[in-house]
Amino acid sequence: MPLPLDVASIFAKLLEVSSEADPADSVAPSTYMGMIESATRMSAVQDYSALVGISHMVYGWMPRMLNLHSEAFNTTIAATFWNEARRGEIAPGTLDELIHLINNSIVGTSKLLHFIEPERFPILDARVIHVLRAEFEVSEADTTGGFYRDYTSWMRRLVADPRSEKIQTNLIDRGLLEGGESRLRAIELCLWIAGRT
Asked: What angle is formed at CA 113 by the lines to CA 103 and CA 1, rounded to 5 degrees?
């Protein structure tokens, strides 16, 4: 089943999670915001070195070591990546190159994109995939670039819905967000919390 277009059940679950979330279920909001600030500073350079630095930083949220497969990732591809990331749209070929660069991992790639453009790119990890499959019967939820592009579009539609503001407010009130985080982060965090097994 594709990502649900009827978002009523999605928002019912997200509102439930956001109103019951335990602050112990999340990373300290100040850590997250510190990483956003660091990525913003490094992104000002927009070169391969900044990409490497941010990749290593976000891999601190990963369970294994980062191995950059940089043999095919050159300065031209890096420049294309920065331009596309800033526009909020990564072309399929660029996304595939980036996934290959970063351990062949959509999880690491999604985290890199999120910390570079937190208002535009959601994090996709195993817990989010689990909740999409288990709660919302999204059978094709996987770790491919094509699914990540669909997931990003779907998440942007959820963020545009006025109900997303209540989810964000609930998480701020419960101490899981500081207030500077995007609605995209609020929705993604609820999916992550709901995906714990």
From this structure: 85
- Nearest alpha-carbon partner for 96 in 77, 79, 114: 77
pTM assigned to the model: 0.80
Could you state, in order of their start, the residue ranges of all structural domains in the chain? Answer: 8-194
For residues 25 and 94, what is the distance between their CA atoms, to the nearest angstrom?
34
The per-residue DSSP string of 24-65 comes to: GGS--HHHHHHHHHHHHHHHTT-SHHHHHHHHHHHGGGSSS-
Whether residue 124 contacts residue 110, with contact meaning beta carbons closer than 8 Å, is answered with: yes
The CA distance from 174 to 24, in Å, is 10
Tell me the pLDDT tens digit for each residue of 29-62: 667 888 888 899 988 888 888 888 888 888 776 6
User: Helix 163-173 and helix 145-160: axis angle, to 10°?
Assistant: 90
Side chain identity, residue 167: I
**Secondary-structure breakdown of the chain: helix, strand, coil percentages, each rounded to the nearest 5:** 65, 0, 30
